[in-house]
Structure formats: C-alpha cells, structure tokens
Amino acid sequence: MKADGWSDMTCVLPDQSGELMIHVRDAFQTVPSLLQWMRPDTIEARRIRSIHKWGGSSAALVAHVGVLEMDWTVMVERLERIRNSIIHGGPITDAVVSSVIDFADELSFRVMEIACEAILDGRSLANAFDDHRAEAQELYHHMIHGRDVETALFGTSEGPPTIT
Questions:
Q1: To pair with 100 at 20 to 30 A between CA atoms, which of 49, 86, 107, 156?
Q2: Does the pLDDT at position 68 exceed 80?
C-alpha cells in the first residue's frame, strides 16, 4: 500500500488481469453500509463488525492494538515454554502445540519474507530486520498519536508512512 495522503490511500493487489486498485478510504467508509446487507451470523459479517468496532475511533483502535500486543506476548511466551520443554525433555502435549501453531506459522512466514527481501535487495539480514522494526515503530507512533482513525492508520498528508 502507498499513501500520499489519506485521500490518495490506495492498495494495489494482484489479480488475473494484472492489478486491482482498492481505494482504502472509500472501502473503510462503506463498512457500516456493508453490515446492513449481510446476514449477521456469517463469518464475514463478524469480521466486518470487528473492523467497524475497532475502527470506530482512534481510542478504539489503540485499545485493539493493546489487546493484540497482549495476545502477541502470550503466544511468544507459550512458544518459549514449548521450546524449553523440548530442549529439557519436559512434557509437551498436542493441545499446547496446536494452540500456537498458526501463530508460529505466521511468524516464520514473516521472518522468511523479510529475509528473502533482504537477500534480493542485497542487504544484510540485520539491516532488513532493523528497517522492518523501524517501520513498525513508525506505524505504531502514528496509531497512538493519531487524532482520528484516518491519521492513526495512515498518517497525515504532510508525512504519511509508506505501508508495504
């Protein structure tokens, strides 16, 4: 995604004909009307309601990020406990492993994605991970200090973050 200001926020996705352009601002503003046309008991409707709930205000967005941070911490600590159990021969159950498998899969995918980009760009892995961390911190800063949802998600027209 590239942002040249909130009004120009677009997301380019590949499709069969090449690219599909989504105007994020327009899409975000249609969320309430989407809910009117959806059966409330579907997975899609629940997902749309979640977007509407956490995107309703910048305070709701910051609260949602806080919940995600707590979930992240719990999952990382659980992975560490599993690793320690394997190393030290402690007990490990299918239930414990299955509770973190999706998180571990997503985390390993992101690590490989950043590493592959670094290799293709001719950068060191350390620099690539440092750059990724700096981008994440910039986005977090905009989110925490945004005066509204648009600013929190996409920055201001004077200096929006580039979301990749």
A1: 49
A2: yes
